[in-house]
Amino acid sequence: MACVNNGVPACNVPTNATVVSIIIRDFIHLTERVSAANLASLMASYYEKVGAQVEQQQGVLTSISNHGMLVTFFEVAGADNHARRALRCALAIALIAYQTRFLIRQSFPEQGFDRFGVGVGIHTGELVFAEFSHNAGGQHIVCGHAVSIASLLSVKSKDLDWNVVCSEQTLAAVGSGISTRRRGTLGADWLNEPVQVAEVVVVREVEAGDKMDATLKLDRGSRSGMYRAFDPSMSGSGGEQNGDYPAVPGYRCLKPVGRGGMSSVFLAERLSDKAQIALKFADGSVSEDSEVLYRFVEEYGLLEQVRHPHVLQIYDQGVTDDALFIVMEYLPGGTLKQRIGSKGITGKEAWRVLREISHALAEVHARGIIHRDIKPENIMLREDGSAVLGDFGVARRMHEVRMDGHLDTVVATPYYMSPEQALGVAEDDRTDIYSMGAVFYNMLTGLKPYTGDTLESIVQQHLRAETPKLQAEHQHLQPLLDSMMAKSKSQRHSAKTLIAHLDTYHPPA
């Protein structure tokens, strides 16, 4: 391939490349309600961030309008292949759209805009880099079937309700390190054959030491994984303001209160009314790890739908030059794990927590959301001791699980994971019920439901071992525990039927 100018091919020479088409959805809504000057300022900020990502991934901007752009990725000596660079850029642009959404809401709170969003289509194929001249001026554009396909995918993204729509042809060109959620087939009158597509959520290198918070990550069908426990030394201590704390206008960070693999949480003071709230910050940046930020932003998108006394309350999300953050309620009672300790809690208290979280799950499941990581660390306590379900960082929407058809990875905590999570097969709301049953056992006994010297042995017990037995004083609760931790989903309660079932039991004294 004849190339000039840092990988850009010579004009009118057919070449293989990856095209990324980006459109701003419902752009007309902005133009109707924002002055031309404000709109220009807003779009300048958006395109500046997008342009930085295009430059970082060595793409070529080949077309731009007020509501869309076309970026082409050619082979560049010494760099990753063009398909991989294109996907990295696409995911970053999807996250920039989230940031822009919050900027719009903060800048124009009274307008009631539709959610700002983009559709990104990606396709790999043959195209021609052409020059069109008129008098003294000229413009370079790309022409070919690949351009048409990428443009089609970006337009169809709204109907699919996906951010990033990638052709299977591009996925094949990318290689390893890709996580997808849903797949489908798109057609058009002018296409000889429909296009097979996938929703891409992650593109990164897979390293041997890849770890995710206090969770287990298993390749589908395998029986081994990586686990890292919470490291309190990473959180620091003390209550005085530290110059290293993140700065967010309108808030003052007081002290760190928690840290995981994808975020840090600080106790903060809201300056307007001196109220204590929690600020949760995403670790890293868009260019460093798209999966972490995708999960972080997705958590806000899920939690903002839910208003329930036993679900963590989310107030807002925002972006600064240095951080992406969520504003949420502060829960001074700590975590259920801390409350349980090594001895467990009273039967009466365990019963109350079970009821409260079951009501929370009923509401969450009614919204079509599966938590997927129920564990004592993710159940927090208010000052009055009431239980609150939090940390939706690995939650999924149920319709996505059904449409996906398979799971490439399993994300759960080993001691509380369900059999279907261990197998990497489809989950549903009863997945959370199994995990809650394991937590119930932990509350009553202070013990993990299954233990072992290796992750392999723990996983195998979730798949095959009998339900752990309660002590004599709690034996009357064994049938309830058995029904929650049944190996088959079909034998478990839903959250709604579990609540009704609890009403038939007398709470422990």
Explain what this protein looks like in three dimensions.
- By secondary structure, the chain is α+β, with helices and mostly antiparallel strands.
- It folds into three domains: 3-203, Alpha-Beta Plaits (2-Layer Sandwich), CATH 3.30.70.1230; 238-329, Phosphorylase Kinase, domain 1, CATH 3.30.200.20; 336-502, Transferase(Phosphotransferase) domain 1 (Transferase(Phosphotransferase), domain 1, Orthogonal Bundle).
- The protein is built from 14 helices and 21 strands.
- The strands form six sheets. Strands 3, 4, 5, 6, 7, 8, 9 and 10 form an eight-stranded mixed sheet that branches. Strands 12-13-14-16-15 form a five-stranded antiparallel sheet.
- Strand 12 (251-259) and strand 13 (263-270) form a beta hairpin.
- It starts with a strand and ends in a 7-residue tail after the last helix.
- 41% of the residues are buried.
Distance between the termini: 79 Å
In terms of DSSP E residues, the strand content is 15-25%
Structural class comes to alpha+beta
Rg over alpha carbons = 25 Å
Short descriptors:
single chain; 509 residues; alpha+beta; Alpha-Beta Plaits; Phosphorylase Kinase, domain 1; Transferase(Phosphotransferase), domain 1; 3 domains; eight-stranded mixed β-sheet; five-stranded antiparallel β-sheet; 14 helices; 21 strands
Task: Write a short abstract of this structure.
With 509 residues, this protein is α+β, with helices and mostly antiparallel strands. It is built from 14 helices and 21 strands. Strand 1 and strand 2 form a beta hairpin.
Secondary structure elements and their pairing?
Elements: E1 3-4, E2 8-9, E3 14-24, H1 27-33, H2 36-56, E4 60-64, E5 68-73, H3 82-107, E6 118-134, E7 137-143, H4 145-160, E8 164-167, H5 168-174, E9 178-186, E10 195-203, E11 216-219, E12 251-259, E13 263-270, E14 275-282, H6 290-303, E15 314-319, E16 324-329, H7 336-340, H8 347-366, E17 369-370, E18 379-381, E19 387-389, E20 396-397, H9 398-404, E21 409-412, H10 419-423, H11 429-445, H12 455-464, H13 478-484, H14 495-502
